[in-house]
Specification:
heterodimer, A: alpha/beta, three-stranded antiparallel beta sheet, 7 helices, 37% helix, 23% strand, B: mainly alpha, 11 helices, 85% helix, flat
Chain lengths: 241, 261
């Protein structure tokens, strides 16, 4: 059974734009799935629907195994500028009224896992773009989610930082048995990170192609990864033609 | 080095202007009931020191009470607006009407309604009306300025309206609120003075009354002393609120950081 299922979902915005039509896909527990498409194809909208931040006009968003704890990472770090890294990472726990001592311990542990040990007291403005993104990732992980939704989280970062964060995300996914739905417009990123790539059409978005990928992609330039990129690019070209 | 100039240049200008003023009074033999010399004003200030301080205390008490009331009312109303669009749409036009109606025009009415036996309350109400709007406007804008994604994230994690207000909206609103408070501090003083003027000399005891009384008696030097005291009080209120702003924002808000750099 799938963890997340979107079936024939449609969404129109208040300004009349039809963002999604007949969008259907599923994500299995423990899977790493990329949602790939051109800018403005409704990828982010699909992710917000999955998170329950938007309601579909038609169709259904369901969780056949029960509603999981969800972590969400935006394209921008979206931190509270007045609060330090620990307080930012702790936010989901604070909202659940977890005792401060326990929440602090868990937030510190998750900050250490994303490589920010020693930066607990740093304010967002004192951190680099990549480090801010790590705080954002820590905040998404702190409540131990089953489903991690990421909306082009590394798009604003330089390539070196982006690759490093991608590797760290893969490692967290392997260690925690997370389920990841990763929205991106980068063929390279989707080919390297995910087990399955869902290629979307331009607006109104729906799934144009589904590309399963080989499991063992140990680096970004291995022949398997490059071959996968060729296939994804072809599907993307066809979808946007 | 820049800090030294920031203080030294205005002080130098003041010394220059006062020097020329003093010299001009002496040179042209200007009568003291038209324009007293700075030294005469200084003398009047020292001679009337204790009564001037009493008047200042009276005006300052009205100002501070009005400022506190304006802060409480303004923030409470802004929170109400942020929780209910309906409330905002219904009340905001009246807040604007209140703001654009000259307070001098409604002050007599308030004095009559509250009664001259409770003159202090009337003065505080009038000054509060003057200081209220910038607080409301600042806090309303600030509460609306919260990052939409951050609000979505909080909702995703099951935040209640109260949690969103306390953890996200209010901290976001703080810089806007403080900016409104800086304007409101000066306005509360202006409101207190205007209210005293309208109340007249019979009952009020503040600095405005001293100015009216000195004017009537042609004690222009005392008038100037009261005026200078009033200006200094205004500057002090502004400085105190700027300091508060700096203390609260210096670690994270762009406005305070660039000042410190």
């Amino acid at each position: 059974m799938s963890l997340l299922s979107l079936s024939r979902v449609a969404k129109r915005f208040a300004n009349g734009t039809q963002a999604l039509r007949d969008l259907s896909f599923t994500v299995a527990p423990g899977e790493f799935v990329s949602l790939l498409g051109p800018s403005g194809c409704g990828k982010s909208t699909a992710l917000r629907l999955a998170a329950g931040l938007l309601m579909p006009d038609a169709g259904a968003v369901t969780f056949p195994l029960g509603k999981p704890e969800i972590g969400f990472v935006f394209q921008e770090p979206t931190l509270m500028p007045w609060a330090d890294a620990l307080t930012n990472a702790r936010l989901p726990l604070d909202l659940k009224h977890m005792p401060r001592r326990e929440a602090n311990a868990r937030a510190a542990a998750v900050l250490a896992r994303v490589g920010l040990a020693g930066f607990e007291r740093a304010l967002p403005r004192e951190l680099s773009g990549g480090m801010k993104m790590r705080v954002s990732l820590a905040r998404a992980l702190v409540a131990e989610p089953k489903l991690l939704l990421l909306d082009e989280p590394f798009a604003a970062l330089d390539e070196i930082t982006r690759n490093r964060l991608g590797d760290d995300l893969l490692q967290l996914w392997r260690e925690d048995g997370l389920t990841v739905l990763f929205v991106t417009h980068s063929v390279g990123e989707s080919s390297y990170l995910s087990q399955r790539v869902l290629v979307m059409t331009p607006r109104p978005g729906r799934i144009a192609a589904e590309i399963p990928l080989a499991q063992s992609r140990d680096d970004r330039l291995s022949p398997v990864t490059v071959e996968a990129q060729r296939g994804i690019s072809a599907a993307l070209n066809q979808a946007t033609a | 080095m820049r800090r030294v100039y920031d203080i030294a240049l205005p002080v130098l200008l003041a010394a220059l202007v006062l020097g020329i003023w003093e010299w001009a009074i002496f040179h042209w033999q200007v009568p003291h009931y038209v324009l007293p010399s700075p030294s005469a004003i200084g003398r009047a200030f020292c001679e009337n020191f204790s009564s001037l301080m009493e008047s200042l205390a009276s005006t300052l008490a009205v100002t501070l009470q009005a400022f506190a009331a304006a802060c409480l009312l303004g923030v409470a109303t802004a929170i109400g607006f942020s929780q209910s669009r309906l409330l905002e749409r219904t009340l905001y036009p009246y807040a604007v009407i209140l703001q654009v109606t000259p307070v001098v025009a409604i002050a007599p009415l308030i004095l009559i309604w509250v009664g001259f036996e409770r003159i202090n309350l009337a003065l505080v109400i009038i000054a509060t009306l003057v200081a209220f709007f910038p607080i409301l406007a600042g806090a309303t804008l600030g509460l609306k300025s919260a990052d939409f994604n951050l609000l979505d994230l909080a909702r995703l994690h099951g935040a209640s309206r109260a949690q969103i207000l306390w953890r996200i909206r209010l901290p976001t609103a703080l810089p806007y609120l403080l900016s409104g408070m800086k304007t409101a501090g000066g306005l509360a003083l202006i409101g207190a003075v205007v209210a005293e003027f309208v109340a007249g000399s019979g009952t009020a005891t503040g600095l405005a009354w001293r100015i009216v009384e000195s004017g009537n008696r042609l004690e222009i030097a005392t008038l100037f002393a009261a005026l200078a005291l009033l200006a200094a009080t205004g500057v002090l209120i502004f400085a105190a609120l700027s300091l508060l702003e700096w203390a609260l924002l210096r670690r994270w808000h762009e406005s305070a950081i660039s000042q410190a750099a």
